[in-house]
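Lab notebook, bench 4. Continuing the backlog of folding jobs that were queued last week. Each job is logged with the same field layout so the records can be merged later without manual cleanup. Today's entry covers Cysteine desulfurase sulfur acceptor subunit CsdE, a 146-residue chain. Filled in by technician R.K.

JOB TYPE: sequence-to-structure
TARGET: Cysteine desulfurase sulfur acceptor subunit CsdE
LENGTH: 146
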Amino acid sequence: MMIAPHPFGRDITATKLLEMFSAHKQWEDRYRQLILLAKQLPPLPESLKQNELELTGCENRVWLGHECLPDGRLHFYGDSEGRIVRGLLAVILTAVEGKMPQQILTEDPLALLDQLGLRQQLSTSRASGLQALAQGIRAIATQYAP
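JOB STATUS: finished
OUTPUT FIELD FOLLOWS
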């Protein structure tokens, strides 16, 4: 049984997100899509919102946890108090979920946000929060990379 399962990276794939967002050219529509994604991210139980999982450098509180699956792939989970940040987190989880540590280290966890046309609209503080999230993911992958 996986800790804090979610549909991202399994039922909701990068390809599905690209199809979903390519239909929306206006930022407001993409924003709405992000909020819908946020609603699909199950809230983390309070027991998992531990200080050691909380990332610093984000304007909203953000938690990022993980577990190494028996086959060596990484399962990531997380939550945020902000709706938009939860949506962005869902996109990032889609990009990294179930991948091997080496694969995560060779790819930019934020590249999918660029492909979806989401990063250029973000405030500076949100952008730095995303960097903190990407660094957190890389740090986790580094622990398990051979």
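OBSERVATION: The mean pLDDT is 93.
SIGNED: R.K.
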